[in-house]
């Protein structure tokens, strides 16, 4: 079983990414369930804007990411929260994935059918539930199945506060919830592909 | 296989409900797949406000609906759109369902695990995608799995326009999409319970 | 200058309401600016479901609340957060207010024009920004002006945690932000009616 | 009086933009009210990702757009709808504008105070109300005032259908609503700066 993990931070490497830190908890949990993982830090990959699977110009990084997504049973989108909403990088990913709606697999079904999607959110203020709503609705539109409780987050309110990496507050909850998410993703993916 | 269908219109019987009309398309498709369906028009059922499974007062209609939900593999929430958002009746349903987060079945798992949820939306103006996002996020939080493309809608923009029952525009698309939703719900429910 | 404040908690009196506690901070700030305030705990007022200004049955509490709204320059909607979303009581208020879209004042303009709306959100987990988005969009659709930074909230994540009344964490930020909101509401209302 | 209009289409020039077509209706209405307008097609301007006002690298187009925004009393964000949500380009604009939250003017107030924001949405399927909710909440967080009914849209459901430029359906409603939006933006901006 394979999982593609997309870190949609705005920060290019080698800047530290809080989203990567929480995503790594979910990745480790997936790997303990014998899932092979592929992680992309999307902002490093030169993904062009657009709504097509085809390269949108020379050097467009999307086709490689798309190939990973369609070779995986599990997709995890991880994003920071800005103004209570998913990052523009996460939105660009959803836009490129929009093309999958009309692409079909060997069985004539939409290519995302039978695949599952989960979510990881971080932020230095309130916002995760809505970010998950946006990502889940987009993934479901495209054809991914979203298992119950297939997400974790670390956002702390009220008001602007520390980032995930600045404190230990709530890490244990986010870790435990992320491990549950990983288990639910794997279990559901197995049921759908079984 | 059983499905509980909740019509969250604001209109009490015997007023005609556009939401019921589109919901009936999904119900027929479920029944063709040999699913037994139970439909509640929630506004007729005297559901009290609150966030608990227990009766919130004498005559509270929620416990009966809750019993139907937890005896069904499939849940369909159908709602009209007001101001681009789900109805207050749909919100009241989600609030009462909030209690399910901490209730577990015989296997010690959250009681909604292994069940699927889908959505039907109508409205006389734009709004369905967001309504689906709200309902899906709530259902996923509670533990329901939302299959890919497990919804249909009929909303027409721009600006205020006809209701579903006033025109034939787009009925064919909404019907076909609703039949796909029914199929995806049944298939996923079977996979999860298999 | 007058302000109508709607507490959209699910809890009937005399149960303590966290939302009322934070709302009272904004109310005090408005009163210090010489605004006369009218507060309704909507769940106590027997507001019927519907989308009309007229009574929807015998004893419908909406017409009195509507009269307060249209006699006030300022509206504040306060709501708890359930599943990351506004309460069903807040939604019912928006639905009844939907009728204002087509009602006009003496000047022939939509009746909400020239009035301002602000928001107060509480919750025992993440969610405020989205709740504000829902309420603001509804109010703007209806014709209310929403001043910049005309809200405050108290929601703490990650995961379920204490309610506003259970801790002092962040109260100072929520109070200061609520006082700014009150000031921005009054200033904008004066500019619009000046 | 000045207005900055940001077209957040994903399509680079010289591709035709449906969003530009509807935005031009609002621009003409603003100009009839003697507002000087500055329009940016953001995707052509090489705006880097980030959450700061300062250039994020050589050739970053944001500082020029930011200068236009802070020299204008009116901001209009126009976006297409993808998967029922604002474009990634609109999200990138909001992210760069996030820095304005902590920037102050000569009066020591947040720099967006006293400025108004409005919205234009197009799409070949349902989604406008939610897009407006996202943009309005972001603008309000930053300090912009959003006047009542300060938006227009052209989205047609149910299901994928024509784009704005492909049909005349509803153009009259979108135009009239856009003219009302322009009037409300100008009137409110005058009141705030009066």
Largest interface: A-B, 29 and 29 residues
Q: Which bin fits the share of residues in helices of chain A?
A: 25-40%
CATH third-tier fold name of chain A? Rossmann fold
CATH top level class name of chain A = Alpha Beta
Low-confidence runs of at least 5 consecutive residues of chain A: none
Number of strands of chain A: 6
Structural class of the secondary structure composition of chain A? alpha/beta
For CATH, the homologous superfamily of chain A is named as: Flavodoxin domain
| Approximate strand percentage of chain A | 15-25%
Shape of chain A: globular
**Global Rg of chain A:** 16 Å
Oligomer class: homotetramer
Largest sheet of chain A: 6 strands, mixed
Round the mean pLDDT of chain A to the nearest integer and report it. Answer: 97
Task: Quote the distance from N terminus to C terminus of chain A.
Answer: 12 Å
User: What would CATH call the architecture of chain A?
Assistant: 3-Layer(aba) Sandwich
The helix/strand order of chain A is EHEHEEHEHEH
Number of domains of chain A: 1
The number of helical segments of chain A is 5
Description:
The structure is a homotetramer of 194-residue chains. Chain A is an alpha/beta fold and 194 residues long. Chain A has one domain (2-193): Flavodoxin domain (Rossmann fold, 3-Layer(aba) Sandwich). Helices cover 37% and strands 19% of the residues of chain A. Chain A contains 5 helices and 6 strands; from the N terminus they run E-H-E-H-E-E-H-E-H-E-H. Chain A has helices at 18-32, 62-70, 88-97, 128-142, 171-193, and strands at residues 2-7, 36-41, 74-82, 85-86, 116-123, 151-155. In chain A, strands 1, 2, 3, 4, 5 and 6 form a 6-stranded mixed sheet that branches. In chain A, strand 5, helix 4 and strand 6 (151-155) form a beta-alpha-beta unit. In chain A, helix 1 (18-32) crosses helix 5 (171-193). The longest helix of chain A has 23 residues, at 171-193. The mean pLDDT of chain A is 97. Chain A binds chain C through residues 83-85, 125-130, 133, 153-159, 170, 173-174, 177, and chain C through 83-85, 125-130, 133, 153-159, 170, 173-174, 177.
């Amino acid at each position: 079983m394979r999982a593609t993990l997309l870190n949609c931070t705005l920060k290019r490497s080698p800047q530290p990414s809080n989203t990567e830190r929480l995503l790594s908890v979910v990745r480790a949990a997936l790997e303990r369930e014998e899932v092979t993982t592929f992680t992309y830090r999307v902002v490093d990959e030169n993904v062009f804007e657009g709504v097509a699977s085809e390269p949108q110009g020379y050097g467009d990084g999307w086709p490689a990411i798309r190939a990973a997504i369609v070779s995986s049973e599990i997709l995890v989108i991880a994003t920071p929260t800005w103004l209570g909403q998913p990052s523009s990088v996460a939105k660009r990913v959803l836009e490129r994935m929009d093309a999958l709606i009309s692409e079909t697999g060997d069985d004539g079904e939409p290519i995302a059918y039978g695949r599952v999607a989960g979510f990881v959110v971080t932020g230095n203020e309130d916002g995760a539930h809505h970010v998950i709503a946006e990502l889940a609705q987009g993934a479901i539109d495209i054809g991914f199945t979203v298992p119950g409780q297939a997400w974790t987050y670390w956002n702390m309110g009220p008001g602007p506060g520390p980032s995930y990496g600045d404190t230990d507050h709530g890490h244990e909850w986010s870790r435990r919830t992320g491990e549950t998410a990983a288990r639910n993703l794997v279990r559901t993916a197995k049921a759908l592909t079984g």
